[in-house]
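Input record (Table S2, row 331):
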Amino acid sequence: MTPELSNEELILSFLAEGGDDFVSGATLSDKLGLSRTAVWKHVETLRRLGYRIDAQPARGYRLLEVPDRLTALELSPLLATRELGRTLHAFDSVASTNGTAFTLAQEGAFHGEVVVAETQTEGRGRRGRAWVSPSGKNLYCSVVLRPELPPARAPEITLVTAVALAETLGELNVDARIKWPNDVQLGGRKVAGVLTELSADAERVHFVVVGVGVNLNSVQGDLPADLKDTAISVFEARGAPVPRALFTAALLATLERWLDVWTNEGFAPIRAAWRAKCSTLGQRVRVKNERDELVGIAEDVDDTGALLVRVGDRLERVLAGDVETLRPAPQ
Ligand code: BTN
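Output record (biotin complex):
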């Protein structure tokens, strides 16, 4: 389902395509089937919404600056996806984008529909934790997926998403590594997380909501003191702010590409990409979950995404838990 783009969205996409070059008023009025005056009025509307658009009589229009907001107006012109984000539900504030996306999916939302919000009042993390969501700074995004899949394979989607996140962050010239199963880190501090929630029966998945939180532009003061040493934002890591709409569009395109690879070729290429970005393998780790705790060497991930931990001469297969990296054992 590709909803109609508004005239403002169309103008923005032509201007974005033009880059630093001017796009003439005549070209825009031809492409949109509107008079030059009507084009001018839409440009004025965009300016009122915070877009800086240069207009020169003999040359046309040029996009100088996009407001740092996450609505369809900012995102749609940047999207290079077939499906993901083509229907976008953008909110100022929700309890949790995963919660909203889950409800929409129960009501019949299509594969690829995306929910974003400027802030979440009850953002959720893995294992019942909260996801702190300062307003207007970071990305809180949930995607509805409808894969043909037995429920046992659903956790693979989390790893697909972690790979897409690490790759997209890499395009910002930061070295993002994945800590098993799906924490994305910069220099050992968490920059992004993935929360996958599922509706399924015994045989098949009805839908999956994959939720992504990325600390893009937050600073220490935006997060509670107890996260000070463990969390980081891209802004803090590279010293330059991240345009959130551009990042979101890039992430959705990368995620769609990796989902295609996964659908067509299975989990093997995901596992290979995941292993190449993983900081956990080869480390001495402590893994804790509700049931037990073990210490050993993280040797590998198997072909379902489970972590294989060597404890003495046993190889333990860990399906869920929190990993802490330890110093090497004394010799
Ligand atoms: C984790 O604990 O690492 C997972 C964090 C996932 C947070 C994101 S923010 C957008 C989406 N909505 C939520 O409530 N959670 C996820």
